[in-house]
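input
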Amino acid sequence: MRIQIVAVGRLKSGPERTLFEHYAERVTFPFSVREVEEKRKLSPPELKAREGELLMAELPQEAIVVALDQKGTALPSAIFAQKLKGWRDTGVKTLAFAIGGAEGLDFPVLQRANMILSLGAQTWPHMLVRGMLAEQIFRAQCIITGHPYHRE
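output
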C-alpha cells in the first residue's frame, strides 16, 4: 500500500520540516508528499475553494482518502493502526491523506473522503500537522509489526 499526503502549502526548511522528515524517513510503506499552493491573493472563501480544487486534482482516483479536519473523528493510535492494517490487508493500493490550508478543507474534499480524521480538539498549524501525521503513521507501523516504539 502506498501512502501519500496531499497538502496545501510548501513546507520550507525549519523545525516543522525536520519533524516531518524525522518520522517520514522511518515509514516503511512507500510514502510521498504532494504539495499544492495558490499564490493569488483571494478572499478566505475563494482561497479555500481554490485549494480544494487543487487538492482534488492531486488525489488519486483509486485512493482511499482520509481528510484531516478538526471536526473529524479522533482515534486512539491503536485503532488508527488497525484501520491502516485493514486497508493494507484488503488490497488498498493507495491511501491518501488530505491536509488543508489555514482556512481548512473545502466541502468537496470532505465529501470525497472515506474518513475524516481529527488529531484532537485543539487547532494545529497546518504545517505542523504533516509531522504529527507522519509520526502517527510511523507509530501505526510499529503497532502493526509489534515494534516496542508504541507503549500504552
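quick obs: Residues 1 and 89 are 9 Å apart (CA to CA).
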